[in-house]
Amino acid sequence: MPLRSFALFTLIGVATATSQGQLPPPPREVAAGYQTIRESDLRADLAFLSSDALQGRLSLQPGDDVAIQWIASEFAKAGLQPAANGSYLQAVPLIEFRNDRAESYLAMKRGGEEKRWKFPEAFGSFPKDTDLTAPVVFAGFGITAPELDYDDYQNIDAHGKIVLIFDHEPQETDPKSIFNGTGNTRYATSRVKVQNAQAHGAVGVLIVAEPNRKHPSNQERVARIGGSATRATPLPSQALADDSLHTPSVTISDAAAKELLANAGATPSELQAGIDRDLKPQSRALPDTEATIHLKNLFSHAGTSYNVAGLEKGSDPALAGDTIIISGHHDHDGMSVENGRVDIWHGADDNGSGTVGVVELAHAFAANPVKPRRSILFVVFAAEERGLLGSFYMAAHPLRPLDRTRAIINFDMIGRNETPSDQTKGLIEIPAYTSNRLNLIGATYSPDYREAVEAENKHVGLTLDDRFDRESALNVFFRSDQFPFVLHDIPALWWFTGFHPDYHHTTDTFDKINYVKMAKILRLAYLTAFRMGDERQPPRFVPNPRGS
Q1: Do residues 183 and 227 lie in contact, with contact meaning Cβ atoms separated by under 8 Å?
Q2: Which of 3, 295, 311, 473 has a 20 to 30 A CA-CA distance from 500?
Q3: Residue 286: CATH number of its domain
Q4: 434 shares its domain with 346
Q5: Is the CB of residue 127 less than 8 Å from the CB of residue 242?
Q6: Does residue 341 sit in the same domain as residue 208?
Q7: Which residue range is the domain that position 349 belongs to?
Q8: Does one domain contain both 312 and 403?
Q9: Same domain for 269 and 378?
Q10: Among candidate residues 106, 31, 14, 108, the one with its CA nearest the CA of residue 435
């Protein structure tokens, strides 16, 4: 089935079942667990997890520590096996720090003169104070994709240099682009690009929004959302203490990029147009252009958060070594005390809903006498809001072999109706009716996985939607904890009910959750996980989805 017909197909299928007034019951062997998923339990758990007492569950703060212990206790009640060397807790060593915007800057030297840019024209964060100076080279979109015969680094020497790259990917408005048409591929995210620059010997990276974009840049989009960004004291940054990424990067404005590229022999717009025209690199050295990245922190200290993990072992000795992961993340954006006023970012939908969902399914599988042949690993990740840190850590330090991890169901915001907001304004069309709609993100990388969800949906009757796999402006594909595992060729989908005006605001509270829909989503996930855990052929991964 063509990917573009996915949403239409599922809409028609659901409409037919609804018009007939009947949905077939789930198979008898899974019915016991299916029936334990109750709206009243979801509401009770979520009221606790998003309460004032947990203070917004900021990573490394006491409220999130309470959430961690609650999840571990629920896994124990469900009878899951501790999955982290005899414990439910996998330690995630972190460094917490705060950039000093007043002292940090990007400077350019040319013709014996220096120009400096500070926030918001140039900004970055790095766990160590940084002061490095190097020549600048332009490296296009910063992508090396040999399987697509595309490499921005093929004609330049980036060793010991600072590379300047465009955000996103070439031809992103072309439905026939080899880079997944109008959607994102794994190459679009800044982390992957900085790692690629590092692999080519670069010592620093400058990232600018693609000049011919037809949407707000990441910088512009974040600025208009508000929410956490409106605090008088910004949230601290966090990084993995042993992160394989050790190259600093700085986001720069269009104006700064124009000056840095003044000696490139073409304007930024012309450089992008050249790449988009025929996918031939426009990378080049920039004569007489030297840059200094100076990043200073107000503080930096170590801390430890935890991934919480429990195992339901598979029933087939030959397949129990295979793993299906059901995941979410437990942290949110904490609280703020300003002039005696206390504000709490409750995070009911983001991601209290996903956390409660993982716990509910742990109990559902435990209650079902019949177990799937493959093992199910239930994981609630740490520090997602700080950069997917818990999931990147587990991908680097897996509790179960990644080469036998067959699929991942990741819950992040599964409790609301999708409604217009500053997050999506002018970027993506939101259907008029979303109270029965579930977005599946990443299905282009595994049509088999998508088909498993569709097959089980006949018992549940949700409207399935793949819009976010066909847009690139919002960067949704790499904004949740399934993404680090996609980088390891594992079929992994983000189950997501969409953005709303309360996203990353103090008003994301448990009373606004659509518990009827949330329960249906969990029932569908239960059936899908059981199916993928039991069927002979697990979902296959498609390394390079292409446009239509």
Answers
A1: no
A2: 3
A3: 3.50.30.30
A4: yes
A5: no
A6: no
A7: 3-96+300-534
A8: yes
A9: no
A10: 14
User: pLDDT of the chain along its 548 residues, tens only?
Assistant: 333 344 434 443 444 344 446 899 999 999 999 999 999 999 999 999 999 999 999 999 999 999 999 999 999 999 999 999 999 999 999 999 999 999 999 999 999 999 999 999 999 999 999 999 999 999 999 999 999 999 999 999 999 999 999 999 999 999 999 999 999 999 999 999 999 999 999 999 999 999 999 887 766 765 555 545 467 778 999 999 999 999 999 999 999 999 999 999 999 999 999 999 999 999 999 999 999 999 999 999 999 999 999 999 999 999 999 999 999 999 999 999 888 889 999 999 999 999 999 999 999 999 999 999 999 999 999 999 999 999 999 999 999 999 999 999 999 999 999 999 988 888 899 999 999 999 999 999 999 999 999 999 999 999 999 999 999 989 999 999 999 999 999 999 999 999 999 999 999 999 999 999 999 999 999 999 999 999 999 999 999 998 76
My answer on whether 82 and 146 are in the same domain is no
**What DSSP letter does each residue of 353-382 carry, written as one string?**
IHHHHHHHHHHHHHH-SS--SSEEEEEEES
Q: Which CATH number fits the domain that encloses residue 308? A: 3.40.630.10
Question: Among 16, 2, 55, which residue's Cα sits nearest to residue 463?
Answer: 16
Per the domain annotation, does 393 fall within a domain? yes
pTM reported for the whole predicted model: 0.94
Q: Give the N- to C-terminal CA distance of the chain in Å, as an integer.
A: 12
Which pair of tokens denotes residue 476? 């949704």
Are 418 and 474 a contacting pair, CB within 8 Å?
A: no
